[in-house]
Amino acid sequence: MKIYEDRAAPNPRRVRVFLAEKGIADVEFVPVGIADGGILAPEFRRRNPLAQVPVLELDDGSCLSDSLAICRYFEYLQPEPNLFGAPGLDAARVEMWNRRMEFEIFWPIASVFRHLHPFFKGKHPQVPEFGEVSRAHAFKRLDWLDAELADGRPFIAGERYTVADITALCGIDFGRVSGIRIGERPHLARWYAAVSGRPSAKA
Question: Is the peptide bond prior to 54 cis by the omega test (within 30 degrees of 0)?
């Protein structure tokens, strides 16, 4: 199996952190650049016509091209440690929190970068007004998450580390590029210190 990725992008990092938590190391990583147009090359677009990373190429030549789909596949291959939740209510809670981290933390922060950062100028239609709305939304949601974590639970979805923590970590770290930081949010800072101190965070 091979994973095509740009190490500077947040979605491939989600997969790397996930694999590190699983202890899966026998996957080849193949660099594909966003900035240099590598994702637009015909050879890569045969793997993902949407020209996005990461892409998992399986041994039969078929591909998965969504970070969470890739993570779910590896969860099926190696169920423990469980990062998507035990079947039933636990899995539903993890799914709820992961989707919240995706839509309320990760994507607003990514939208600030996409619509305001010079990196995307001429590469992607930018709507600066939407970028500013996304920035305001991101800060409000950091406030919300800080309040949620005020109950003292160690991780986003409860008592153990899950994919929801990975999504939130990668989104918040990506916010640095756009000047979005945790700031004076003590409960969020406590959580962040714990998850960013895990060996997997360096993946």
Answer: yes
Burial class of 90 by CB neighbour count within 10 A (0 to 12, 13 to 18, 19+): middle
State the average pLDDT over residues 146-174: 98
Kindly report, residue by residue over 83-106, the tens digit of the pLDDT.
Answer: 999 999 999 999 999 999 999 999
| pLDDT digit string, tens, across residues 183-197 | 999 999 999 999 999
- List, in order of start, the domains of the chain with CATH numbers: 2-77 (3.40.30.10), 89-198 (1.20.1050.10)
Tell me the C-alpha distance between 60 and 98, whole Å. Answer: 30
Give Cα 54 distance to the centre of its chain. Answer: 11
Q: How far is CA 97 from CA 2, 54, 122, 164, 175, in A?
A: 29, 22, 35, 6, 19
Main-chain phi, psi angles of 115, to 5 degrees? -100, -10
Residue 114 near residue 120 (C-beta atoms within 8 A): yes
Summarised one tens digit per residue, pLDDT across range 135-151 is 999 999 999 999 999 99
Locate 189 and state its tokens. Answer: 């800072």
* DSSP annotation of 154: S
CB 16 within 8 A of CB 27: no
Which helix (H) or strand (E) segment is 63 a member of? strand 63-64
